[in-house]
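# step 3/5: fold
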Amino acid sequence: MLVVNHGGREAIEIFAVDYRDTRKQPALRWQGCLAMPAGHVANSVASYSDGTVIATVLTRPGTSITDFVRGQPTGGVYERAPGEPAFRLLPGTELPGNNGLETAKDDSGFYVIAFGRREVVAMRGTTRASRYGTRRPLNSCQTISIGMATGCCWLEWCATSQPAAGCGRSSMAWPTA
């Protein structure tokens, strides 16, 4: 499990989660951390199946919330692959207020919220080297299924600046026991 930490250090904390005994609370074991670049505050975090971690930064040093509300690029998506010594900014991911983040189920790219534009932006490509080359806002309702140890939830969202009827609201359905 990856967690953004703002307490004492800006880092992505890594935990192993043991939920084998369903009669007990899951057990967490700290595995380490990945420090963010100096002056950068992570907002969201996600990972690929190969262990590569990506994190959003809402406002980089020298930018402000006012800037992203005005639509100016303030944030970015940072990547750190296994064995790399530090996070690096992924070129082309600088958006107004990079916020929420999720990788594509097939590892072909990721989705990031451009908060200042009220858009979900898909970053996709056909190879690892080019998966960040295409940037396009999604303009229709999408359904994402997120697998969890205790079940699944489904999140429906619409990523247009002017949502169509029936879009623009979240609906979550949790399995019942």
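# step 4/5: annotate
The two ends are 24 Å apart (CA to CA).
# step 5/5: archive (pending)
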